[in-house]
Amino acid sequence: MSQTLPLRLHHHAWVTDDQEATRRFYEDVLGLPLVATWTEREVMRGAERVYCHTFYGMEDGGALAFFQFADPEDQKEFQTEINFTPLRHIAFKVEQGTQDAMWKRITEAGYTEPEAIVLDHGFCVSLYITDPNGLRLEFAVDHPDVEKIDAERRATAHADLARWLAGDHTSNNSWR
After folding, report:
1. Is the C or the N end of the chain the one with fewer CB within 10 Å?
2. Closest CA to 36 of 18, 16, 17, 62
3. CA distances from 128 to 22, 46, 123, 136, 173 (A)
């Protein structure tokens, strides 16, 4: 039996304290359309919970999803508060025109560093933004030679990891 990879991101879920602020950010600022709102009653962890579950669509059919509970105690119990670090993020591939349009709307909406930045990683150029819920997002435009770069990294991925784990921490990113 052959192993297959997941087809695509179905959705990434997060808890929000404010569905409308989340909608404004994703739909009005980033341009991701609200594609579904589910209002539900469900038994979770032994109690009936009432919540709203929204989905913001991406081109491939995947989505970012957000829960908000009607009961403040449920909201507190399921809150996804974590220590913020810019290294914990979710990244999306975008075309240059999409990234440019996002950057324009982000700056027009008043976002500045450190909430929103663009970084050139060599192999891609990434726009980073933090949403109203503390979720860090990356919108990456691949380098024009992405196929060559990908082939290089795939060919040496295990050796590079073994070298790094053995203590050789020299950079292998010649694309910067």
Report:
1. N
2. 62
3. 17, 38, 16, 7, 20
pLDDT tens digit string along 48-82? 999 999 999 999 999 999 999 999 999 999 987 77
Instruction: Output Rg (C-alpha) for the chain, integer angstroms.
Output: 19
Q: In what order do the strands lie in the sheet with 63-69?
A: 11-15, 63-69, 47-57, 34-44
**Of 133, 142, 141, 162, the residue nearest 17 (C-alpha):** 133
Q: How far apart are the first and last CA of the chain?
A: 40
Residue linked to tokens 């909406």: 109
**Are the C-beta atoms of 59 and 7 separated by less than 8 Å?**
no
